Amino acid sequence: MDSLNDSIREYTETLKKGRIQRAYRGIMTFMADLRSRIEQDRPELATGALYFGYMDMTYFACTPRELRDQKLKIALVYLHEENRFELWLAAANRQIQARVARQLSGRDLGRHMLMPIKPGEDAIISSVITTQPDFDHPEVLIHFLERELNRFSQEMMNLFRTPWHAADRLLVADRQDKQQSRQEDWIEADPDLTHDQPEERRD
Q1: CB–CB of 76/69 below 8 Å?
Q2: 130: buried, middle or exposed (CB in 10 Å: 19+, 13-18, 0-12)?
């Protein structure tokens, strides 16, 4: 394995050619413009800050309220090494990520992929949307990515509107009803618990 100094020397030599800087600036400028366009065209989405990354991934969140209410989010991601765009369904924390992944296990997700739960994996669902982005025609690429984002967002919302998810919510409601019933039985067994105690008499 090369030492850090060896890697830095190669990095320095590559930078002298000038292409890395131009490519990186071009990608960051495009991602910033894409984020601004989505924020302008889709004001109902919660658009997060642009994460620049370490030349591994660059992304920002753009999430419908319906998914935000469930502590989920959608991220539009550019992967540098693979030179491709993906859309991810992610969660607010690891506990929600694991729970939703378990709930989705075994379901037909169509063109989307359920990601394994492991350290460093942020996506619950991942969808590759283009493997050959044409940065020389940014307007065309922005239009394409916006269309794919709209499609993915709708599919994710539909996924959580299905009878399966409704049944999951009914299970929670049933547990709450049973808890309420136990509380009512407890009060019925000792009705004095529902009344205030009389004040102490003072002569």
Answers
A1: no
A2: middle
Q: Which residue has the tokens 């419908």?
A: 64
> Residue 60 in contact with residue 73, Cβ under 8 Å?
no
pLDDT tens-digit readout, 46-74: 999 999 999 999 999 999 999 999 999 99
User: If you write DSSP's letter for every residue of 68-136 in order, what string do you get?
Assistant: HTTTEEEEEEEETTTTEEEEEEEESSHHHHHHHHHHHTT---TT-EEPP--TT--EEEEEEEESS--TT
pLDDT tens digits, residue range 172-192? 444 445 555 555 555 455 545
- Return all residues near 175 (Cβ < 8 A) that are at least 6 apart: none
Provide the number of structural domains found in the chain: 1
pTM score, whole prediction: 0.78
What is the spatial distance between Cα 61 and Cα 43, in angstroms, rounded to a whole number?
A: 13
| Domain assignment of residue 59, yes or no | yes
Return the CA Rg of the chain: 25
Range of the domain at 27: 16-165
Is 192 inside any structural domain? no
